Amino acid sequence: MKKILLLLFIGISSFAQKTAYETKTNIQYYNTATNKSDAYINERCVLDIYYPKNTKNFATIVWFHGGGLTGGNKEIPEALKNKGFAVIGVNYRLSPKAKAAKSIEDAAAAIAWTFNNISDYGGDPSLIFVSGHSAGGYLAAMTGLDKKWLQKEGIDANKIAGLIPFSAQCITHFEIRRENGIPDTQPTIDAFAPLFYVRADAPPLLLITGDRELEMLGRYEENAYLARMMKLVGHKQTKLFELDGYGHGMTEPAFPLLVNEVNRIIKEHQKLN
Questions:
Q1: pTM of the model
Q2: Which residues, including other chains, have CB under 8 Å from residue 20's CB and lie 6 or more apart?
Q3: Of 33, 60, 79, 105, which is least surrounded by CB within 10 A?
């Protein structure tokens, strides 16, 4: 009987100690002057933060939604909830109301907001991860590899703890090509291509795509090319996962890989500190 009561007590105690989470919505990530200067920025450039309450030094995932840079809305993916870290869902300006390049500018501003503010919620600024699906994956890759976008916000992109884009375009995004009269099937690698910025000193990079035969256009091959070139320039922490049997909407099996990568890097961080 004592054993049963003890086990019951342990069960009740652990349940009572379960982490509580809070969500704050529609936080503007540009400053007041910028918001006042542009009605679309004021309306669109907001984020939601989901974070563990009464917890210190947690990791944060900045999550960019997909939608081809022309649609979509901020989200806190269910698969990332209750995992011990914060998730920030970001809205950004969309084409054609704004040039597609403004989406990258906004993504950098939202990441900078996270670096500058996450400690106020209890988070660790050295454990900020950047991820997203499709167009969101493209934004994660661009802001993490082309350092100028975050540099403009006073942030060193190398401070990102990990880049984990899902099914990202690694050549120039097709919406940017469309703006310049270049068709979807004309591959282009220019200043708006993550591939243009392969470098050895980038944050850890985990690339995840669907099945190469089921994915959108040449999405797997673009990621495979990026992975190969990152390794050739000397980047030591590039990995590529192809999810057999899944097409472009491959987020469900990809989320556990994201969580595993975040936890792997957290453990490495703890060993060093």
A1: 0.93
A2: 52, 53, 54
A3: 33
